[in-house]
């Protein structure tokens, strides 16, 4: 661990051959509040699931908007659909509904 208690994050490069913007086109129509996200991280800090498995709703929203579908399908099943993230969002992003729609579109169990 570094002297300061934190380290530099790994680089996060996008392979444009793997990017798919079809999901954001669909989700953006179903739940336009996804475009209001400012990436503050309040949802991730509050997420019920995160304390058990590092689930990160802020990263899910970013991944949807940037077309990283593999990350989304690998992670989205961890969401418990409890809705806490939505209650703390300063931008009133309906994170729960976004994830619910993603689960339904990707064929994962919504309930
Ligand atoms: S709390 Fe709202 S604005 Fe902040 S990262 Fe989550 S969805 Fe985005
Ligand atoms: S609805 Fe999902 S992302 Fe939001 S706080 Fe609950 S478990 Fe976390």
Q: What's the helix and strand layout?
A:
Blueprint: H1 22-30, H2 42-46, H3 50-53, H4 57-66, H5 69-75, H6 84-88, H7 95-105
Bound molecules: iron/sulfur cluster (SF4) (2 copies).
Residues 37-43, 58, 61, 89-91, 93, 95 line the site of one iron/sulfur cluster (SF4).
Report on this structure:
The chain has one domain: Fumarate Reductase Iron-sulfur Protein, Chain B, domain 2. About 45% of the residues lie in helices and about 0% in strands. The mean pLDDT is about 90. The N and C termini lie far apart (about 40 Å). It contains 7 helices and no strands. The chain is an all-alpha fold and about 110 residues long. Bound molecules: iron/sulfur cluster (2 copies). One iron/sulfur cluster binds near residues 42, 58, 89, 93 and 95.
Key traits:
111 residues; single chain; 0% strand; binds iron/sulfur cluster; Fumarate Reductase Iron-sulfur Protein, Chain B, domain 2; mainly alpha
